[in-house]
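Re: the 251-residue chain
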Amino acid sequence: MTSDDPMVVTARSAAFGYAGRVVVSDLTFRMAPGEVLAVLGPNGSGKSTLVRGLLGLNEHLAGEVEVLGVPLNQRDRSQLGYVPQRHTLSGSVRSTVREVVSTGRLPHRPWWRTATRRDSLLVDEALATVNLTDRAGADVATLSGGQQRRVLIARALVGEPRLLIMDEPTAGVDHASQSGLVEVLHRLAETGVTMLVVTHELASLQGVVDHIIEMDAGQVSFDGSPQGHSRASHMLLGHHDNTSTSKVEVA
């Protein structure tokens, strides 16, 4: 990263919502190239609305948002990779792991042009990154939930995104699968992939995340480092403990 590199995301007093109704407001933060940003918060706090806003899937109602150095409505969607929480890889249409991952290259060539050697190499690299080379020919319906999540990450990676957005990548999988997914995220972080990760599993991402935003009631309640977040959490916990003790003493 050089001083001339634009911020990956810059938001200034931004608001997102649906049908004219504001859900997330007064959103101000910056995300640098190579950064791994964790978005935390309880259900209903606005995390998904923020993500969908950056992807252009809901309404940008106020403020300024730039993605990869250009206004939100001018961004190049092919430069954003998205890994949804809810996967749909085990439907009625049978596909191999390699076939699903290969679809991540479709936005980068005309529909009538066949896959190139470079496309094939990128698929190979993505499968290796997520440790699924040996399952390339397997039917995705036969994979575990954690493996299917890794297929989705590989599908996003073959598009060579400048920003990879993941919604709860470790949620809903067993401990062993979660460990495999965290290993993949570590590997991506080490290679400089810029990631925005919505998660409830902050402890498992220790050493991966270097920037945290916490959402509460549609607004940012914390924006800083993991160390700062830990200090703020301990202070809040101490405050609650003192309050509880005071109440007991009064009683």
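Residues 226-250 form the longest helix (25 residues).
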